[in-house]
């Protein structure tokens, strides 16, 4: 086994320290938010909370999980995340597959068109006019359809499809498979890594939907979670009709932080199950 040189050891130590500090800079704010969400009203009022809870309580989480407005915002966000991600994967794979095959004529023109959308994204006003003319204002479709295909995710998926052997596709055609059947019965099952990777990218975007919801949604009942968080954090719109939670209103920061933590949990919980596909998909999608 080769021993590391002194300079290599110093460089390795520097990397460990740098990455450790970088990780701490990301972790400490989350620990602070978690501590506030688990702290009592008096401790929050007196700004006594650091990285550990003071006067431990779960009352803030009880409020969040029993508030109809917050639960409805969660339901809206879950809906647009699940349905939107499915739409994204279907449409992105349907475009990426034909443009990954050399036998399709004119594919370079479409590749340039997709590339232009990544270099010059649609301005807000034309996008707003388009959504309005399509009668999607105050509709959850306005949060899913306009961004159905991301140019970056398209190129990642196309790069992966290009690595699938031509012989496999040609053998399927000889057996009588049409292009749609080849795509959904052969290509997609072989593409779990890139599907998981791209799906996670799309899901995170939908889960964090904010600006488009502000532009296109005017009805409070259709607000996704991030807009509800904005109301709570920036506008201090924290209300309760339950006497059990009346004391919490004197220090609404605990409720706000509890909502932030609950909003983070689904993505954090899903990632470990997709991690092996995620890493493999990123590697295979970037190397040809």
TrEMBL record:
Q: What is its main location?
A: membrane
Compartments where found:
Cell membrane
Q: What is the membrane topology noted in the UniProt record heading this document?
A: Multi-pass membrane protein
Q: Which domain of life is it from?
A: Bacteria
Where are the bilayer-spanning segments?
Answer: 12-35, 69-97, 109-131, 143-161, 182-205, 254-274
Give the Pfam families listed for this entry. BPD_transp_1
- GO CC annotations? plasma membrane
One BP term from GO: transmembrane transport
Q: Which UniProt keywords apply?
A: Cell membrane, Membrane, Transmembrane, Transmembrane helix, Transport
List, alphabetically, the InterPro entries matched: MetI-like, MetI-like_sf
> In what residue span(s) does the ABC transmembrane type-1 domain sit?
74-274
Q: Which family does it belong to?
A: Belongs to the binding-protein-dependent transport system permease family.
What is this protein identified as? Protein LplC
Q: Which species is the source of this protein?
A: Paenibacillus montaniterrae
């Amino acid at each position: 086994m080769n021993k590391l040189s002194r300079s290599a050891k110093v460089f390795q130590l520097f990397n460990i320290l740098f990455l450790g500090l970088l990780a701490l800079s990301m972790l400490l704010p989350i620990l602070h938010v978690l501590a506030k969400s688990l702290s009592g009203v008096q401790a929050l009022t007196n700004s006594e909370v650091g990285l550990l809870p003071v006067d431990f309580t779960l009352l803030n989480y009880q409020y969040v999980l029993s508030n109809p407005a917050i639960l409805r915002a969660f339901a809206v966000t879950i809906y647009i995340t699940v349905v939107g991600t499915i739409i994204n994967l279907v449409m992105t794979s349907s475009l990426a597959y034909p443009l990954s095959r050399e036998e399709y004529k004119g594919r370079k023109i479409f590749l340039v068109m997709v590339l232009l959308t990544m270099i010059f994204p649609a301005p807000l006003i034309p996008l707003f006019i388009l959504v309005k003319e399509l009668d999607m204002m105050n509709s959850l479709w306005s949060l899913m359809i306009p961004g159905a295909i991301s140019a970056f995710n398209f190129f990642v998926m196309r790069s992966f499809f290009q690595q699938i052997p031509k012989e496999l596709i040609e053998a399927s055609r000889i057996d009588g498979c049409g292009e749609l059947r080849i795509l959904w019965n052969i290509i997609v099952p072989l593409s779990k890594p890139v599907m998981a990777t791209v799906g996670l990218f799309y899901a995170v975007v939908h889960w964090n939907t904010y600006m488009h919801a502000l532009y296109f949604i005017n009805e409070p009942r259709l607000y996704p979670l991030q807009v509800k968080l904005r109301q709570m954090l920036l506008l201090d719109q924290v209300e309760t009709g339950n006497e059990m939670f009346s004391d919490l209103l004197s220090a609404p920061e605990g409720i706000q932080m509890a909502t932030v933590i609950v909003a983070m949990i689904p993505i954090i919980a899903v990632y470990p199950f997709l991690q092996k596909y995620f890493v493999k998909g990123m590697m295979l999608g970037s190397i040809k």
